[in-house]
């Protein structure tokens, strides 16, 4: 599990650690770890040139101390052709760090005061750099560039060679440390070296701009719960419902699927296939004649008609608007009634696609076992209705966690918000961290892949996982199955469903070895 703590909690932990340590020890640990990573990255580059961009705070301090270490180590090894620091802020740089860097022989270009020739010299240095160390802002930074340095920073990054390896110190400068503002100007790093613990910027929607995440231990002890986490393969394997010798198909969990209609006939096939492939004890499909015929033909393991279930997947391919259409097919109208009955059954539910349009109030608080699986457009529509406001898809994509949280709080449900990054957001009252998966291949952005996810998540609910675990596990396994179905190329949704047994087997084998 990679867990991330909020900036205030990190600052409190740093303060507590510093109280027991000599002055400057924590930063020295950070700089030592950073210098080690930099040394490793330049070890294969003959005559490497390293340039640090240095802001006025602690992040610049880390960078200056690390450059000083690198310069001193190079006196023995002579791997470097040059090592320089560019001070970007009018407020100068960390005093002790700057003195140490100068002493160690780091060249310093000071941009404070705004002289053009200094900026030109800095741009020349940056253009030649093999490794660029971004130490402008860390957790003290606000999203984007502040006005006083924006021009310089733009010029410096414009001058950067595309081949240069960009190492962000703690986080890519300009990125929102809280990971909530997604489109701010600033650095996109090849690697981010962070200290103590990960921060939300490393796991939430800002994660892609961090590149490879490397964690340096500086001895922080966290006294609070994380705000975000990403499940690793072992976590998923540990949560996966593995049958025991006393199990039978009913004890493993029966999933009811209310999906599709006369117009949308593929969604039920995909959701039912995924649930069966993921190892449901049994899947019961309810629907009108055409999709029923298709499910019968393609998934012979499924059963049909009403009967006892442990959980529901409701909504893939469901057209809720037929309820208001006098000319609608009778079977389709009945399907909406069936969906409503499933939603009102008091059983755990995955509520997807068309069934989201049927939600008109809070889910039962007792047990609160509902997992909503909207994409950004569906969440915008749902929230607009729930809050009686106009919320657009763009609003949701600009602040995905905030909007998912609002829906989770309002409806007493866990929200799995789909996209290139998938967020599983429980109601605030749970105190649980947001779960994030961002490893899925973009090839998964294809019609029907959400139906597969809905079947998979439903199977996990039926097996007894709560919506939070079912959502987190389903999102990770869905992404892995996307890779498994065709690594590096197009995938069709049905192949993702068919890849589930191999994917799950590999996860369980890996955890057992
Ligand atoms: N505390 C510790 O023990 C340890 C701390 N550690 C390290 O310290 C870092 C935190 O240091 P911090 O608090 O000094 O803040 P930091 O991130 O350097 O930036 C603040 C300065 O940046 C500026 N600035 C702000 N926004 C900006 C923007 N949008 N665009 C441009 N500039 C902007 C603003 O300066 P100004 O503009 O006012 O001159 C402000 O003063 C942390 O991430 C880690 O790397 C590690 O060594 C471990 C031990
Ligand atoms: N760029 C992307 N990278 C990775 N996964 C993505 C991306 N875009 C969408 N997805 C995933 O693809 C699935 C699409 O679901 P959805 O939009 O509901 O499709 P449908 O309703 O057609 O089945 C979701 O699981 C989502 O997380
Ligand atoms: K940085």
UniProtKB/TrEMBL annotation:
Q: Which cofactor does it need?
A: Mg(2+); K(+)
Residues that, per the record, bind AMP: 418-422, 450
GO BP terms in the entry: metabolite repair; nicotinamide nucleotide metabolic process
Q: Which GO terms describe its molecular function?
A: ADP-dependent NAD(P)H-hydrate dehydratase activity; ATP binding; metal ion binding; NAD(P)HX epimerase activity
Q: What is its EC number?
A: 4.2.1.136
**Which keywords does this chain's UniProt record carry?**
ATP-binding, Isomerase, Lyase, Metal-binding, Multifunctional enzyme, NAD, NADP, Nucleotide-binding, Potassium
User: Is the Nuclease keyword given for this protein?
Assistant: no
Annotated YjeF N-terminal domain residues: 10-226
Residue ranges of domain YjeF C-terminal in the record:
232-507
- Broad enzyme group: lyase
A Pfam family cross-referenced in the UniProt record is: YjeF_N
How the cofactor binds, per note? Binds 1 potassium ion per subunit.
Q: Which SUPFAM superfamilies match?
A: Ribokinase-like, YjeF N-terminal domain-like
At which positions is (6S)-NADPHX bound? Answer: 267, 317, 375, 451
Q: Which CDD domains match?
A: YXKO-related
Q: Which reaction does it catalyse?
A: (6S)-NADPHX + ADP = AMP + phosphate + NADPH + H(+); (6R)-NADPHX = (6S)-NADPHX; (6S)-NADHX + ADP = AMP + phosphate + NADH + H(+); (6R)-NADHX = (6S)-NADHX
Q: What does this protein do?
A: Bifunctional enzyme that catalyzes the epimerization of the S- and R-forms of NAD(P)HX and the dehydration of the S-form of NAD(P)HX at the expense of ADP, which is converted to AMP. This allows the repair of both epimers of NAD(P)HX, a damaged form of NAD(P)H that is a result of enzymatic or heat-dependent hydration.
Q: Which PANTHER family match?
A: ATP-DEPENDENT (S)-NAD(P)H-HYDRATE DEHYDRATASE, ATP-DEPENDENT (S)-NAD(P)H-HYDRATE DEHYDRATASE FAMILY MEMBER
Q: Quaternary structure? A: Homotetramer.
Question: Which family does the record claim for this protein?
Answer: In the N-terminal section; belongs to the NnrE/AIBP family. In the C-terminal section; belongs to the NnrD/CARKD family.
Can you say what this protein is called?
Answer: ADP-dependent (S)-NAD(P)H-hydrate dehydratase
Name the source organism. Mobilicoccus pelagius NBRC 104925
